[in-house]
Amino acid sequence: MAMEILDPTVEPRKQPLTFVPRPDSLTGKRIGLVENTKFNSDKILGKIGEILKKEYGAAECKMWRKHNSSVPAHQEIIDEAKRGVDVVVAGIGD
Amino acid sequence: MTIQIESKRYPVEDLSHAIEFCYQQGWTDGLPVVPPTERAVQAMLEAAGLEPRKQVAFITNRQVAVTAEKIAINAVMAGCLPEYMPVVVAAIEGIADPQWGYHGPATSTGGAAVLMIVNGPMAARLKFNSGDNLFGPGWRSNATVGRAVRLVMRNVIGTLPGALDRGTVGHPGKYSYVIAENEAESPWTPLHVERGFTPEQSTVTVMSAEGPHQFYNQLSSTAKGVLTSLCEDMKHHGSTNGQPQYCVVLAGEHMRTIANDGWSKKEIQQFVYENTHNSVAHLKRTERLPGAVTAADETTMRPLVPSPQDVLVVAAGGRAGAFSCYIPGWAGGKKSSQSITKLIQDRRV
Q1: DSSP letter string over B10-31?
Q2: Which of B20, B38, B67 is best to mutate for the A interface (most A CBs within 10 A)?
Q3: Gyration radius of chain A over CA positions
Q4: pTM, to two decimals
């Protein structure tokens, strides 16, 4: 017997995202590093910061630590990053 | 009462085609689902007293609103009876609570499932199993309520295995992981009363959790003896990524042994907290913490859980057998995900 069934899914709400333009060069730029609390994430980000200074001419690096790896960077990090750095490096890894 | 359902409709030839169609659309957990017809979905909504458009939860990281209509459709698919719907709704409210922290446990390689513990009069009324074969098959309410929650996670929130559910090994509790506390035989304060609800209220507690780890003690006739065996097993689980909450499920024989010594849940929690510390030296030697072992590490102790209250003690399981179990929370730890207890509400006018 013919029947009709209902769709159990939804489409996630769409929202436009605007990216800031990428800098042409990192020379003299201030780098923010967002560490996700997992083992060694501070070490790898520190190493990345060193490379960005040594090989790409970045001026300085500042690192922040998230509350935990499962949440976005908290407001204090966002506010400080807005004020104090030009570029942010963040990521997640185990 | 006819309620306006707005979800997209698909015509299918017959029942068997409907089941296959759901597979083809990627809407199932691997088992056949009950095809969600409008009539069945309406019955589900009516039993909960919910309008279809009512937003039950909002999952921030996914920007997804979970409506009563979508919960009802998935509850039908899971095989729920309409009267289970308020339990499913309460569980969804629980996992959407910011303290539960949906994104972490739902997505993590840690592979947690949603452990649900039902308390209060509704547990018996809806025939939730709290006894023999506690985590096993055989009870419709236990099997389908958890399945409904998982289908909502999959179909509404987008927690698809291999995509946004990246559990490395996962566990069978991801199909359904629902128990009730055995309040009729328990000598202790029920979990929901410990958490501020009245005995007459019904609740569901959601906890992001690994599978149950069974432990055995047939020798001891004392609370201390049984719990010493438990702690010896638990402490070597020794999650170091983050200190999670743990659930300790005490079945009939152990429950009676411990209660005969006059121990309350608070005393159990305190004993388990104090006797599951690991030395930092041990954690380093077993490669769970980095670095060389120092002299101070031998006497620096690390608790398994943040506090005694982070051991959820539940009386449940069969009357016979010297087995009980502990359930580690998701490895992300309490700072990332806390167990949440929500009231099961009858919203019918």
Answers
A1: EEESSHHHHHHHHHHHT-SSSS
A2: B38
A3: 19
A4: 0.94
